[in-house]
Amino acid sequence: MARHHDEDEEVVVVEKHGHGVAPFLWGLAVGAALGLLLAPMSGKELRGQIAERGRKLKHLAGERLEEMEEAVSSGYDKARARVEEGLASAKRNVQEGRQFAHDVADAGRAAAGTAREELERRLAEAREARRTGRQGGDEEPVA
Fold this sequence. Notes:
Layout: E1 2-6, E2 9-13, H1 22-37, H2 43-136
């Protein structure tokens, strides 16, 4: 790792030299092949043992695959259920909001109608009082 300074800014450079897992895996494969070739058994026995190990590995891989499929399927089903539940909840909230808005609008219309009726009633009373006040002359006008 090298550090370079450029105009008060520190830069870190990481250099990789290519030593990874691949040489280890190649060594493992070569060692296993040599072990099989130099094993103290006949070719027929060796082939039978290899075939048996292959069947066991295939069976084990199949089991692991089924477990993974079940886990993925279960996770998908759970995620889908959560999304559907969220959508249903959002739809309910929207519907409740709409209903609330309609209720508020209806209450506002009713209040406005009541206020208008009250205003018209008072205006009519004031007009009547004014009219009778002009005729009678001794009452004060009501505003």
